[in-house]
Automatic annotation (TrEMBL):
InterPro entries (UniProt xref): DAO_C, DAO_C_sf, FAD-dep_OxRdtase, FAD/NAD-bd_sf, G3P_DH_FAD-dep
Documented EC number(s): 1.1.5.3
PROSITE patterns with a match to the protein in the record: FAD_G3PDH_1
Similarity section: Belongs to the FAD-dependent glycerol-3-phosphate dehydrogenase family.
Organism classification: Bacteria, Pseudomonadati, Pseudomonadota, Alphaproteobacteria, Hyphomicrobiales
Gene: glpD
Protein's name in the database: Glycerol-3-phosphate dehydrogenase
UniProt xrefs under Pfam families: DAO, DAO_C
């Protein structure tokens, strides 16, 4: 039990929204307790397409507010986390019979002009017969548009928000399920359960934030005890990962004949990421898995564009997640709004709850600011919005200074090979030095579990980022899972069973 049992704010959910809210609130001086029933980012927030984007497609659904806010966030987030977020150029081939060129041009004109773009380069037109981007595609695509958006390591964005929240005083508890929350006058009594030991605990808080993503309605009905709750529409999206299909650093935006679009994106140096799908999902969000039909859809859609088609046998990994979209009654899954809605209940003697429905990774920081406005309406003002100009852990270097940062790390640790120095800077930014400590050789980094995943990195993740299992390390804090064999992953699992429980308290 925490030393001070009455917290200002209790946050349910350690996805991007819960962790973003916890960070913002802790930074303003609120006492915050966050519980996540599994690992950080184990829900939707590690299963996205990983774009910091305005959402060109949403313009077709007149989502101007969302697109403008999201476009503005691109450079804000890049500046605050230039290790895990970076600009990416997208190549959108013009395809006869699909959206007319004037419509695409109009969309991209708005994209370039409504979002406060300063550092990101503007749209241009490409002659695909001459541009290297035309090379891997079928020759029938003669013209394309190239525009800017951003890339994010989604799962790490969550972990870094949690880390910063904890550094500012928040308690972050993973593998801790909120099993019930009941009002006791102007306080909430929240019952928690350690999912490993079954141990129960009760925490009191003045305000409850429900940021449970796809579980948000479930929390309201089963946990808080409200009847007949239906606020979100659960929409599955799946991705496939194949060996690198093209060398160009740019990503592709492909239009499909059904009106949808997919991306093909350079991924983890050696791979190409292709997705996503959109279909209503009736099951348990934790059980979500790519279907055969989705695999066929993605292979077929990508093969319409690539000169050498994408086959099932090319797939090295897949992942799926569930979008918790605010249910605005749209008929098709792909048309449901991607905007967020915050709804509050309580006050005047009844402890307040604020629920977050919908949202994007891209808009998590703005969602958190809006949430703080609602919170401060109940609990009183504590501080001004502050996160627009505050680097996330390891992100305290210039937005365009990534290569300089890699070089600095190599100078400080000359034994690091170039790939490892780059990988560590990508994941940890300036905190790579904390991870490497006094090491003077590879041997000082301890055991190599494979693909240059050393014991020092694993210990850092356990001590600083709440990693407890091999899966946390291999598929969320890093993507070394793409490189390690089953045996190597098994050895890491065994190692972590030995150390993680002892260190989890250190991370809190
Ligand atoms: C296929 C796909 C592609 C996407 N692509 C993009 C993109 O490119 N760019 C973009 O900006 N956005 C994208 N999104 C949207 C974005 O991923 C989501 O909006 C965002 O991750 C939602 O975060 P969240 O924190 O609300 O939910 P989650 O990440 O799901 O977090 C909720 C957490 O609450 C926990 N929880 C639930 N119940 C309890 C309980 N009782 N006790 C304790 N913990 C609990 C869960 O375990 C979970 O970890 C995409 C989404 C999908 C599905």
């Amino acid at each position: 039990m925490d030393a001070s049992p009455i917290h200002d704010i209790f946050v349910i959910g350690g996805g991007i929204n819960g962790c973003g809210i916890a960070r913002d609130a802790a930074g303003r001086g609120f006492s915050v307790f966050l519980a996540e029933m599994n690992d950080l980012a184990s829900g939707t927030s590690s299963g996205s397409t990983k774009l910091i984007h305005g959402g060109l497609r949403y313009l077709e659904f007149y989502e101007f507010r969302l697109v403008r806010e999201a476009l503005m966030e691109r450079e804000v987030l890049w500046k605050n986390a230039p290790h895990i977020i970076w600009p990416m150029r997208f190549v959108l081939p013009y395809a006869k019979g699909l959206r007319p060129a004037w419509l695409i041009r109009l969309g991209l004109f708005l994209y370039d002009h409504i979002g406060g773009r300063k550092l990101l380069p503007a749209t241009k037109t490409l002659d695909m017969a001459k541009d290297p981007a035309g090379k891997p595609l079928k020759p029938l695509f003669r013209k394309a548009f190239e525009y800017s958006d951003g890339w994010v390591n989604d799962a790490r964005l969550v972990a870094l928000n949690a880390r910063d929240a904890a550094d500012r005083g928040a308690t972050i508890r993973t593998r801790t399920k909120v099993v019930s929350a009941r009002r006791e006058g102007d306080l909430w009594a929240i019952r928690l359960e350690d999912v490993h030991t079954g141990q129960a605990e009760e925490v009191k808080a003045r305000l409850l934030v429900n940021a449970a993503g796809p579980w948000v309605d479930q929390v309201l009905s089963a946990t808080v005890g409200l009847n007949d709750v239906h606020n979100v529409r659960l929409v599955q999206g799946s991705h496939i990962v194949i060996n690198k299909k093209f060398d160009d650093p740019r990503a592709y935006f492909f239009q499909n004949k059904d009106g949808r679009i997919i991306f093909a994106i350079p991924y983890e140096e050696e791979f190409t990421l292709i997705g996503t799908t959109d279909r209503d999902y009736p099951g348990d969000p934790h059980e979500v898995k790519i279907s055969d039909a989705e695999i066929d859809y993605l292979c077929t859609a990508a093969s319409e564009y690539f000169a050498q088609g994408v086959k099932r046998s090319d797939i090295v990994w897949t992942y799926s997640a569930v979008r918790p979209l605010y249910d605005d009654g749209a008929s098709k899954a792909q048309e449901a709004t991607r905007d967020y809605v915050l709804k509050a209940d309580g006050g005047e003697g009844a402890a307040p709850i604020v629920n977050a429905f919908g949202g994007k990774i891209t808009t998590y920081r703005r969602l958190s600011e809006s949430m703080l406005e609602k919170i401060e309406a109940f609990l009183g003002k504590r501080g001004k919005p502050w996160t627009a100009n505050a680097p996330l852990p390891g992100g305290d270097f210039p937005a365009t200074g990534f290569d300089v940062e890699v070089a600095k790390l190599k100078t400080a640790y000359p034994f690091l090979d170039a790939r490892l120095a780059r990988r560590l800077t990508r994941l940890y930014g300036t905190r790579a030095r904390t991870l490497l400590g006094l090491a003077r050789s590879n041997a000082d980094l301890g055991r190599n579990f494979g693909a240059d995943l050393y014991e020092a990195e694993v210990r850092y993740l356990v001590q600083n980022e709440w990693a407890m299992t091999a899966e946390d390390v291999l598929w969320r804090r890093t993507k070394r899972g793409l490189q390690l064999s089953r045996e190597q992953a098994g050895a890491l699992d065994e190692f972590m069973r030995g150390i993680s429980r002892r260190h989890v308290a250190a991370a809190e």
